[in-house]
Structures are given as structure tokens and as C-alpha cells.
Known about the structure:
By secondary structure, the chain is α/β, with parallel strands linked by helices. It has helices at 13-29, 41-44, 70-94, 108-116, 129-133, 142-150, 176-192, 205-220, 235-245, 260-266, 269-276; strands spanning 4-8, 32-40, 45-47, 66-68, 98-106, 121-125, 155-158, 167-171, 195-201, 227-231, 250-254, 281-284.
Amino acid sequence: MIKSILVPFDGSEHARAALRYAISLSRLDQARVDGLFVIDIQTLLQPSTPPLAGEALPIGGVNIGLVPNLELQKEWVEKGESMLKTFEDLCDMAGVRRGSTILETGLVGPTICERGRAADLVVLGKRGASEEMGVSEEPLGPVAAEVIRNSIRPVMVAPQSYKEIRHLLMAYDGSEAASRALQLAAYLGAVGKFKLKVLVVADSQEEGRKIGREAETYLQAYELQPEILVEEGNPADTLRSVAVREAIDLIVMGAFGKSRLRELLLGSTTQNVVRYADCPVLLHR
């Protein structure tokens, strides 16, 4: 059940798309949508002024620390208030249940994770405003990557543009995280009336069909009749190609596969899917 959704909102195209997805999901069960703008404390800090010539030195010599730039902080507060006003206006125009709007200063990723503890779902864009303006071609920004790694709540990562959700793909491998994600997919399929397909990427068709039957049996309790797809190959590449082939609008998957060690050695399937998928990806730890 999703009754509260947190949207980190900085006014970027990705954040606006994330808000549209949050609004769409909120309508399934009249969920509350909360907005968050985080002022990155690291952008405010500057070296403190050292003593002038002739002034007494502090005990132990010169100690130059970091202090907030108050003028810059004021500018960021004004920007944050403006962004949250835009967030409120967009929610009100959509006619959804708007909750609180939060302006906070801190480390961006950890602040989102901490505030997300009070929500059922966090929805954010792949990249933020500063990353959209930068020259990096990395499709997944560092803040989104950090939230994926550390959030205790499900996280939905949105692309730059919005598309109505009609077809849902559940990536299932039998792991604990995938089982929790399956429950979320079942809820969305039942409440949202989405067309649901389950993808199993396995070493053999026999193994894949066995894992697929687990998911099918579970989903039948929700009166869902999903199509089970069994594929062999690299999990991330296969998942992305199937999503394109089947015209999928939302991928649901566990945040980690069966082998954390394998993901550390070969690269995270989770982050590779999120990084290159054309549709939003909903992750459950």
C-alpha cells in the first residue's frame, strides 16, 4: 500500500517528470505527496578568514576552518522556497492530496534518505538541476545513485520525460529483495489495473520456469494473470532489451540480486538497469 510519497524537487526536468509519476501513483490510493528541497551544505562552506597582520594568533597557531557563506545561503533559501512553491502549484493543479513541503540544509543524499523514512515511496529523477547543467554524460547522477544504495524505502527513479504507465514489468530472481518487490508489483497491478509481465533471467529455461511459477502463484492471490517471460543472458542487458521489446512503462525489481559479491565484482545490475532504462525503475530493498 502506498499512502505517502516523497518527491525531492529542484525544478529540473527530471524532477518535474518524477513529480508527474508521483502524482500518477498517488491517484491509485489517494496517497499524500510531500516535497523536499535540500540545500547542499557543501556548496555553502567557505574558509574562515585568517587573522590579519599584527592580530594575535589563536592558541596552537592559525586555524582556518570552514564556515557557511551567509549571503549564498540566503540565495539558496530563496531558490528553495520558489521551487517548493512551484511544487505546491503543480500538485494543486493536478488535484492530488498535497502534504508538507520541506526546505532543509544538509548532505543531499543522506537528507533524502532520512526524510524518506517517513514515506512509503521516494520518487526522484535520475539527475538533478546541477547535473543537467553540467558536462557529464553519466545518465545516473550521484545523488540518485546514493539514494538507491541507502534508502530503506522503495525508490522510483524517473527519466527526463513522463509517459503514462500502462505496462509493468516485474524482474524476478527469487531473492528476498525481489520477493518484496513482487509484493509491490502485485499491489500496483491490482490497484492500477496495469498489464503485468514477469521476467526471469536464469542460467537455463528449466530453472527460469521454476522461478517464474513462484511469482505466478503469488500473483494469483491478487487475481492477476501475468505473462511469464524466461530469458537467458546478462541480467541487466536482457532486462533493458525486454523492456524495449515489450513496450514497458515501468520496471519493478529488487534493489539487489541474489549475489551481492557478484554485483560488487561485475558491477551492479540494479544501477546498470536504472542508468540506461528508458522508463522509470521502481526498486525495493
